[in-house]
Write a structure and sequence with these properties.
By secondary structure, the protein is α/β, with parallel strands linked by helices. The strands form 3 sheets. A 6-stranded parallel sheet has the order 3-2-1-4-5-6, sandwiched between helices. Strands 7, 8, 9 and 10 form a 4-stranded antiparallel sheet that branches. Helix content is 51%, strand content 15%. The longest helix has 25 residues, at 109-133. Residues 144, 165-167, 265, 269, 292, 296, 318 line the site of 6-O-phosphono-alpha-D-glucopyranose.
Length: 442
Amino acid sequence: MRLTILGGGGFRVPLVYGALLGDRGDGRVTQVTLYDPDPSRLTAIAGVLAEQASGLPDAPAVIATTEADDALRGADFVFSAIRVGGLDGRATDESVALAEGVLGQETTGAGGIAYGLRTVPVAMGYARRIAALAPDAWVINFTNPAGLVTEAMSRLLGDRVIGICDSPVGLGRRAARAVGAAPGEAWIDYIGLNHLGWLRGLRVAGRDQLPRLMADSEAIGSFEEGRLFGAEWLRSLGAVPNEYLHYYYFNRETVQAYRSAVRTRGAFLRDQQAAFYADPSLKSWDATRSEREATYMAGSRDVAGAGERAADDLGSGGYEQVALALMRAIARDERATLILNVRNRGTLSELDQDAVIEVPCLVDANGAHPYAVDPLPGHAVGLVTAVKAVEREVLAAADSGSRATAVKAFALHPLVDSVAVARRLVDGYTQQHPGLAYLNRK
Ligand code: G6P
Ligand code: MN
């Protein structure tokens, strides 16, 4: 089986390759094609993969190319893991927003809108090439903002594009452990949009253990989301939010902390990865990765007084394991239940059929089928519908090039508090990002 990775020079590619090396089953991936427009990043990552494979007899062959069409032709699976504008672009997404006093973050709030506006046209360009050159390929979208980008690509690829994220799985795993269950034996009742979802049930042997967890302050203090939000707020919601909801529920404190930080997350990762790419090796990749994991959401954990991350959360096993499980379920028709970003169909009555949501799905050779789930909790309806409306404005702006529509996207976001701020954000971002020049079209 042939796998193509768009963004093949990206820092997380060795995680994917490591997961493939552990897959010994029939019908496994035998060839990996890395596509990246930057040849030096490709060389760096191909070198790390060669070190990972050394001594392993039937490791998947690796091909690297700077030609997207060559990479896509004949692919069975395509992983889309691009970062338009690189980490420098991410740092700018963050700093322009923070200078306006609103959240600057990769996927959430104003920063996420800027990243989406930059990424959607490029992702749709690749989707067009996939539709032309590999129409039978399944596309697994890792590219953030993952829900928005998956929805954009689904307009061209339909249900053959499926978005993934590791945060719902991580939340489910941690909550299951907090009630003393093995993650595999719990039914994780999770629903929302990407980075905007809630765990509102945790069934073990047919009984919901979430009320028991909610009543136990010690158990709540034993896992990341419990420490981030605190027992009292979890009890008020009657659900455990995805960690990214910390940016909503504790917005003011987070913005203040992020504004006074020496560097944004994007700037930290940019500098950290520049050192790795200047002198790449498996050893330095691993050290860089460990440091990244240890500092993930450190600013938010500081705001919450949540302390260090748990040792269990520091290993990899997130994205790449979800992607591998999804690919295996489709390729080998091995039924699996995974929380994925797919089109709503009739799952959430508040949203239309084509809205991409994050929901538990049954996966088989025919793709991902969302399970019927309970309605959204009342407190979540407003946020989900507001953020989906913002995403729709981002897609419309990317399509038309309309500056007014881009302003509307920012202004409608719950974390942007004024239309005047939205206008200045569009000015600031279009000045800083060459990839947003299209917004001045009309
Ligand atoms: C989580 C999120 C991802 C994000 C990743 C890395 O896993 O679900 O969407 O890309 O964290 O965040 P970082 O700040 O390290 O780039
Ligand atoms: Mn994610």
